[in-house]
Amino acid sequence: MTDRNTSSSDDAIEETRDFAPRFNADGLIPVVTTDQATGAVLMLAYMNAEALEKTIASGDAWYWSRSRQALWRKGETSGHTQKVQELRTDCDQDTLQLIVDQSGPACHTNRPSCFYRRITPANGGMLLELISDD
Amino acid sequence: MTDRNTSSSDDAIEETRDFAPRFNADGLIPVVTTDQATGAVLMLAYMNAEALEKTIASGDAWYWSRSRQALWRKGETSGHTQKVQELRTDCDQDTLQLIVDQSGPACHTNRPSCFYRRITPANGGMLLELISDD
């Protein structure tokens, strides 16, 4: 979030040294996972408090699967694990950035990143186009 | 999302050329905004359908401010605009990536990115530490 109307409590959360992640009404926080080697955005996923604890404690990326309603260690079946290199929070602490050492493709479609299609004008509307440089 | 249990409908949304963004129950979709010049993650924000339309039509980044419950053209008061260079969707089309030419700092705290603090172990717990290389 980058809203400009700040209050003293906003300033506090923006400048504090206290890590106080703000989970949403479902108890989840979005996580932007990026590749330490390339800087690329690999995926967006969600953590609940337990996934965050496990990630910090283990050094492996754990998420909460909204579709399966279950904790999920990235790569637990595929082997495409994510080793945590750094964990960041944003200004208002309602989003995390996880910088990882990605083993194999991050996306379950076996692409390096989940963001493999760009939106492009075509036929008077918008179509998706595969990004060839991934 | 990178869940592994796919169905034919999952495959369809993952391989289709149709742009069909999946807004959440609040009518919003998260957007990871990155800097074309540096590749850095600048911020995570949200768009509703109108913000997405305005972004595509104008080439300027428009978002939905959850705190102000209003459409918001990034930089409309600060001047720190974002010119769209590319728009991507992820495998299941519930997240967007917006690659921009960022004018000035992206964060309202006047930092280049909203992700200016890392979580680091200290005093037996976790504390936030300013990232000096930003």
Name the helicity range of chain A: 10-25%
Shape estimate of chain A: globular
Strand line-up in the sheet with most strands of chain A: 2-1-6-5
The total of helices of chain A stands at 2
- Subunit organisation of the chains: homodimer
Biggest interface found = A-B, 55 and 55 residues
Can you give the mean pLDDT of chain A?
92
How does this structure look, described?
The structure is a homodimer of 134-residue chains. With 134 residues, the first copy, chain A, is mainly beta. Chain A has helices spanning 8-15, 49-58; strands at residues 29-35, 41-47, 62-65, 70-73, 82-89, 96-102, 117-122, 125-130. In chain A, the strands form three sheets. In chain A, strands 2-1-6-5 form a four-stranded mixed beta sheet. In chain A, strand 5 and strand 6 form a beta hairpin. The longest helix of chain A is centred in the middle third of the chain and has 10 residues, at 49-58. The first copy, chain A, is globular. Mean pLDDT of chain A is 92; it is low at 1-7. Chains A and B meet through strand 1, strand 2, strand 5, strand 7 and strand 8 of A and strand 1, strand 2, strand 5, strand 7 and strand 8 of B. Strand 7 (117-122) of chain A pairs antiparallel with strand 5 (82-89) of chain B, so a sheet runs across the interface.
